[in-house]
Design a protein that fits this description.
alpha+beta, membrane, DUF502 domain-containing protein, 196 residues, transmembrane helix, transmembrane
Length: 196
């Protein structure tokens, strides 16, 4: 019975640690949205959109104000002073909001459009000594003699070692997508034997 209560206590604590950052995140989103809805309502009334669209005008104008703010904030980020300020804010948020750094990294990955070059960031197998390691082709010389390959440290796809090897020590995994490769790395190599 004691084991059951210990397990239940651990589950409750783990659940609270998982849900707390999400609750804080959604509370912040709700506050920001209500702020923009309030001013969206005023702008809609000023322009007469509330008579045309009714109560939906405040949501439309609030969303439009938010999009405009995002757009001009992008221009302001180019100023060095504001960039330092946002880095300072990020550092403070990482201290006070658990999971902020992880969620920020996930959001940056989804928002950033990565321009992929031909045969770059492709899943490969690279021969290191007597063994084959899964990796990503980072760069290949124009003559085809050598290549730079990133070998991730399991289970993180972002941490690892960079090797410069001969192109003959690389096997391209033509039928393996980057998503499949990353999923295998996150699951400690599970499914890697099916790579082709």
């Amino acid at each position: 019975m004691k084991d059951f209560f210990r397990q239940a206590e651990r589950n409750f604590i783990s659940g609270a640690l998982v849900l707390l950052p999400l609750i804080v995140f959604f509370m912040i989103i709700e506050k920001v949205w209500s702020f923009f809805r309030t001013y969206g309502e005023k702008v809609a009334h000023l322009l007469g959109f509330d008579q045309i669209f009714g109560t939906a005008a405040r949501d439309i104008m609030g969303g439009l104000l938010l999009v405009i703010l995002f757009y001009f904030s992008g221009y302001l980020m180019r100023l060095a002073y504001l960039k330092k300020f946002t880095i300072w804010i990020d550092d403070k948020l990482m201290i006070f909001l658990p999971g902020y750094e992880k969620n920020k990294k996930i959001a940056e990955e989804k928002l950033s459009s990565k321009l992929k070059k031909n045969n770059v960031d492709k899943p490969v197998l690279v021969k290191l000594g007597n063994f084959w390691q899964p990796g990503l082709l980072i760069e290949q010389s124009s003559t085809g003699g050598s290549a730079a390959v990133f070998v991730p440290a399991l289970p993180s796809k972002d941490l690892g070692q960079l090797y410069v090897v001969e192109s003959s020590d690389i096997k391209f995994l033509e039928h393996t997508s980057s998503e499949t490769f990353n999923a295998s790395i996150k699951s400690f190599g599970k499914g890697i034997l099916d790579f082709k």
